[in-house]
From TrEMBL:
Residues 60-118 form the HAT C-terminal dimerisation domain. One of its GO terms (molecular function) is protein dimerization activity. InterPro entries: HATC_C_dom. This is HAT C-terminal dimerisation domain-containing protein. Pfam families: Dimer_Tnp_hAT.
């Protein structure tokens, strides 16, 4: 969907105001220029997923021309992941604290939180081999 130039300019300036350390004053102009050449450059209408737009920009070596746009897309692509990961970590930690309350130390609580957050990876671990190695190293042999 093509935005009107006034709407695009306003949205670009809003984003520029939100991220002044990452974007420069050229950002609204770059956005307007990109919309004008989008179809001829990417061969598609305005329905291109954001991360694909970023990858295609780098493949076509457009990051030098649209550096501010590439930075804005990178910020857009990583922000939701960062927030979701933090929220998941906090909710898992709260769940573990409720289950174990004050019966575990802080270090054990941290390890349990990591295992809970990375549960897919933890399910792939073969614990029999780990237990066997641990028992072999810690075995005490007493001669009678």
């Amino acid at each position: 969907m093509l935005l009107e130039p006034q709407v695009l300019d306003k949205a670009s300036k809003c984003l520029l105001h939100r991220y002044p350390a990452d974007l420069s004053e050229n950002f609204p102009c770059e956005m307007l220029h990109l919309t004008k050449i989008f179809k001829s450059t990417f061969g598609k209408e305005y329905e291109l997923p954001t991360f694909i737009l970023l990858n295609e920009s780098y493949k076509k070596q457009l990051q030098l021309i649209f550096s501010e746009v590439c930075i804005a897309i990178q910020v857009f692509c990583i922000l939701p992941v960062t927030v979701a990961e933090a929220e998941r970590s906090i909710s898992k930690l709260a769940l573990i604290k409720n289950c174990r309350h004050s019966t575990v130390e802080q270090e054990q609580l941290s390890h349990l939180a990591i295992l809970s957050i990375k549960c897919e990876l933890a399910r792939e671990i073969d614990f029999r081999e780990i237990i066997h190695d641990f028992a072999k190293k810690k075995a005490r042999k007493i001669k009678l």
